[in-house]
Amino acid sequence: MKSAGYGSPVEWHQDWAFYPHTNDDVLATGIYLDDCDLDNGPLMVLPGTHRGPTCDHHADGRFCGAMNPADCDLDFAKAVPLMGPAGSMTIHHVRLVHGSALNRSNRQRRLLLHEYTAADAWPLLGVANFDEFNGRMVLGEPTIEPRVVPAPVRMPLPPADHQGSIYENQRGAGRRFFETFEERRVG
């Protein structure tokens, strides 16, 4: 959620950094609950980055859920904003680099996110409750044989100092992209 006038940015990140699995057949869907344009902080993606490495999402030795843009060999000027009227849907791969800027408008920007995995994609941090894990299955058959494929993985450990939502995790991030981005736009 990004409240009108001050909804915080979400720094560049890959969802994969938060929850790596045994394979990367994992995606996220987003449904805009409000109209979304450049002013109210759309989801921004860097096309093709889902085929690249998993970037470091740590600061001062702890997971922070954000990439340091100075340490990445990425051209953030190629970011594509995903905009549309309420009801529009976004779909992105778990390794795609994405983020969103501050909401500078007088309108809310709410986005309902769901993550989906293949039935044989098991979280590397473990399954706490097997029945609950299988109970979330939308399609397919439960399996106790995870498919393991080579994929670049970095574990989200040690945990963030402010473990919780992505906003809380990113409080520990050092250098921020969207703060300087906003300063460049205003200045």
- Going by CATH, what is the homologous superfamily? q2cbj1_9rhob like domain
Q: How far is the N terminus from the C terminus?
A: 26 Å
Q: Specify the helix fraction band.
A: 10-25%
Element pattern in H and E: EEEEEEEEEHHH
The domain count comes to 1
Q: What's the main sheet like?
A: 4 strands, antiparallel
CATH class: Mainly Beta
Which geometry do the CA atoms define? globular
Q: Strands of the biggest beta sheet: in what spatial order?
A: 1-8-3-6
At CATH's second level, what is the architecture? Sandwich
**Number of continuous helical runs:** 3
User: What radius of gyration results from the CA coordinates?
Assistant: 17 Å
> How many E strands?
9
Q: How much of the sequence is in beta strands?
A: 15-25%
Say what the CATH topology is: Jelly Rolls
